[in-house]
User: Fold this.
Amino acid sequence: MAINSNSKLREVIADQRAVDIINEYVPGFMDNAAQMGPCMGMKFSMLIKFPQAGIPADAQKALIERLDALDA
Assistant:
């Protein structure tokens, strides 16, 4: 399955390449992925835009670009 920024969180956390990229920009974000149950069906690109995620705009842009390049 191709992973990109529009993949659902459950798909993203199943791909170690994506997890490594996310941890590079937001250390520890994926440590609690299992507890994000209600968010598992959300598109990753939408999830990171929520203020509660605490991801700066520049890191959001970089994450989206890197994830979109994974299986391009």
About this structure: DSSP finds four helices and no strands in the chain. Residues 32 and 51 are 17 Å apart (CA to CA). Helices lie at 9-13, 16-25, 44-47, 57-70. The two ends are 12 Å apart (CA to CA).
